[in-house]
């Protein structure tokens, strides 16, 4: 009987040790796999966000150049603007601003008129939103590009991308604001 108890204890002890070791190494391996998978997913998402943001900034640069062009007719400018907003509905407003004392002064802008109609907003309202966020935008006059959450002003998810603009002397005299 003692021999059976001893053999049973050895078997139970061996099985317990084996189960403990298998569980420990399996959970460690599984945890490592989860971390690696999460890291890969985060890397892919960050690359996608980076590519989207670079594309967004390129579109902004192209539109800034187009905004500074002199169109022959108002109709030609409206056609170009409508085509831009039709192809990229994410853009709501693009404006070039200068700092005048403690205020932002709109120099040139284009707006997604369809968005304004559906949201019952006005261009003046968007300019007022820009001025209400002026403290956040002012660092861009020192050469700092920014992405800001302006959802509270629009009462919907919205961000602004602010890019500083240099003059011919290399000074940052204007900023380019896009609401997206």
Write the layout of secondary structure elements.
Layout: H1 2-68, H2 74-87, E1 93-100, E2 103-111, H3 113-119, H4 123-132, H5 134-137, E3 146-149, H6 151-154, E4 159-166, E5 172-179
Antiparallel strand pairs: 1-2, 1-5, 3-4, 4-5
What is the gist of this entry?
The protein contains six helices and five strands, in the order ααββαααβαββ.
How would you explain this protein's 3D organization?
The protein is of the alpha+beta class and 180 residues long. The chain is 59% helix and 21% strand. A 5-stranded antiparallel beta sheet has the order 2-1-5-4-3, with helices on both faces. The protein is elongated and about 105 Å long. The protein starts with a helix and ends with a strand. The mean pLDDT is 89.
List keywords for this structure.
elongated, five-stranded antiparallel sheet, 6 helices, 180 residues, alpha+beta
Largest pleated sheet: 5 strands, antiparallel
Q: Strand content of the residues, in percent?
A: 15-25%
Q: Give the ordered list of helices and strands.
A: HHEEHHHEHEE
Q: Strand order, biggest sheet?
A: 2-1-5-4-3
**Shape descriptor:** elongated
What is the end-to-end distance?
Answer: 81 Å
Number of DSSP-assigned strands: 5
Question: What share of the residues lie within helices?
Answer: 55-70%
Contiguous low-pLDDT stretches (5 residues minimum) are none
What is the C-alpha radius of gyration, as a whole number of Å?
A: 29 Å
Number of helices, counting only DSSP H or I runs of 4 residues or more: 6
């Amino acid at each position: 009987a003692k021999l059976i108890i001893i053999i049973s204890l050895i078997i139970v002890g061996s099985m317990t040790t084996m189960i403990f070791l298998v569980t420990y190494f399996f959970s460690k391996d599984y945890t490592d796999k989860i971390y690696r998978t999460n890291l890969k997913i985060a890397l892919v998402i960050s690359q996608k966000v980076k590519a989207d943001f670079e594309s967004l900034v390129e579109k902004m640069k192209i539109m800034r150049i187009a905004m500074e062009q002199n169109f022959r007719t108002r109709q030609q400018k409206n056609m170009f603007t409508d085509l831009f907003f039709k192809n990229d509905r994410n853009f709501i407003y693009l404006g070039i601003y200068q700092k005048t004392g403690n205020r932002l002064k709109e120099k040139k802008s284009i707006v997604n008129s369809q968005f304004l109609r559906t949201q019952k907003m006005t261009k003046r309202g968007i300019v007022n939103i820009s001025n209400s966020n002026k403290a956040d935008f002012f660092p861009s006059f020192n050469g700092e590009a920014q992405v800001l959450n302006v959802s509270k002003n629009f009462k919907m998810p919205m961000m602004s991308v602010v890019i500083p603009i240099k003059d011919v002397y290399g000074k940052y005299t204007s900023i380019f604001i896009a609401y997206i």
